[in-house]
Amino acid sequence: VQLVESGGGLVQPGGSLRLSCAASGLTFSAYRMRWYRQAPGKERELVADISSDGSSINYEDSVKGRFTISRDNAKNMVYLQMNNLKPEDTAVYLCNARGAVTGYWGQGTQVTVSS
């Protein structure tokens, strides 16, 4: 199983980024998908969560209205559109596949929000 994130980078406050996570080696449509983030010295936190069929979505309070999670089961992809980015969004963003029994992690992609 592989989860490969991409799309991170350096962006100014107020800017946007779109993260992608490509999944392989698993029945993607059977997994709930999540984006987590981890900033230096802080615990990993759940940012956004989408059910296996995309019908149920949840966000951490600080990103509501700014971030949008989506998935394409035909392409085995999950996305995180991040708008109006703030310096406090700076972190490594990780993709997570959560099944009934198993779970998998990507290696993460760095997002830095700074002027």
What would your notes on this structure say?
- By secondary structure, this protein is an all-beta fold.
- It has strands spanning 2-6, 9-11, 17-24, 32-38, 45-50, 57-59, 67-72, 77-82, 91-98, 103-105, 109-113.
- The protein contains no helices and eleven strands.
- It is globular.
SSE layout:
Blueprint: E1 2-6, E2 9-11, E3 17-24, E4 32-38, E5 45-50, E6 57-59, E7 67-72, E8 77-82, E9 91-98, E10 103-105, E11 109-113
Parallel strand pairs: 2-11
Antiparallel strand pairs: 1-3, 3-8, 4-5, 4-9, 5-6, 7-8, 9-10, 9-11
Task: Write out key terms for the chains shown.
0% helix, mainly beta, globular, 115 residues, 7-stranded mixed beta sheet, single chain, 4-stranded antiparallel beta sheet
Overall pLDDT, averaged? 97
Spatial separation of the terminal alpha carbons: 37 Å
Total number of helical segments?
Answer: 0
- Percent of residues in helices comes to under 10%
Overall morphology: globular
Number of strands: 11
Radius of gyration: 13 Å
Largest sheet: 7 strands, mixed
Q: In what range is the share of β-strand residues?
A: over 45%
> Which class best fits the helix and strand makeup?
mainly beta
- SSE order, one letter for each helix or strand: EEEEEEEEEEE
Task: Note poorly predicted spans.
Answer: none
Summarize the structure.
It is built from no helices and eleven strands. The chain has strands at residues 2-6, 9-11, 17-24, 32-38, 45-50, 57-59, 67-72, 77-82, 91-98, 103-105, 109-113.
